[in-house]
Amino acid sequence: MKAVAFRRFEPREHKTWQTLFNRQSELRDQQIVPMFARGLRALNINADGVPDLDAVNSKLRALTGWEGVPVEGLEEGESFYSMLAEKKFPVGNFIRDEKDLSYTPAPDVFHDLYGHLPFYTDRAYADFCEEFGKRTRKYLKDAKILREFERFFWFTAEFGLIKTPQGKRIFGAGIASSHGECAYALSEKPKVIPFTIEAVRQHEFRIDVFQEDLFLIENEQQLYSCLNDFEKAYTN
Ligand SMILES: [Fe+2]
After folding, report:
1. d(CA 103, ligand 1 centre) in Å
2. How many angstroms does the Cα of residue 74 sit away from the middle of ligand 1?
3. Domain containing 44 — which CATH number?
4. What is d(CA 99, CA 84) in angstroms, rounded to the nearest whole number?
5. pTM of this prediction?
6. Which DSSP state fits 154?
7. 11 neighbors 83 (Cβ within 8 angstroms)
């Protein structure tokens, strides 16, 4: 992890945040699992501009003990999972270019702070991710196993769908923070596969396209309770 001081964003960058936030707000309640909007409110993340990370963190720490940590570049394997184990989530210290809001070369502040941090206000979600980080950390030297843990995180926390009483909703932060992918993920276009740990473990993904295959989680409990079974394959 290369932690850095959180940037002071320029006025035009705050404007980019406002545009991104406002266009995500239109359909948020119809598209995304309700815990996400609750998290935004709890952290006072809004359309005013890039939030003050210290203010967000003081609220988040009080709720679940988690915090966002500004980082330079992309956190990979070893450092990312170690951060999760310590209740830290990396926050990209830049915002995408206003000229193409659909593209960011790496996770930016909108993806991480808007997309991920609200979920960590939820105690069960936060505990699950901490536990996931602790377990993944044990396999950092085994590329094959680590890849399977990466797929698990990818198809749930980044790109998961979930059943709710109101219908299918977005559960993954990677979708929740992408205007185009929100509509796409809930359309008829992607293949939606029932979530099972065996299927997720073996399912390869690409990071440079809309996800053609998405996994549908039955409910939060199904996800939060499956880590023992997921890890069993590596301990027997
Ligand atoms: Fe992400």
Report:
1. 14
2. 10
3. 1.10.800.10
4. 32
5. 0.96
6. I
7. no
Coil, strand or helix: which one is 235? helix
Quick check: is 114 in a domain? yes
Conformation bin of residue 50: beta by default, left when phi > 0, alpha when psi is -120 to 50: beta
Alpha-carbon gap, residue 236 to 231, rounded angstroms: 9
Nearest to 148 by CA among 162, 135, 161: 135
The total domain count for the chain is: 1
Q: How far is the CA of 236 from the centre of ligand 1 (A)?
A: 31
Angle at 114 between CA 43 and CA 82, to 5 degrees: 90
Going from the Cα of 229 to the center of ligand 1, the distance in angstroms, rounded, reads 24
Tokens in use for 142? 């085994």
* pLDDT tens readout for residues 105-151: 889 999 999 999 999 999 999 999 999 999 999 999 999 999 999 99
158 alpha carbon – ligand 1 mean position (Å): 6
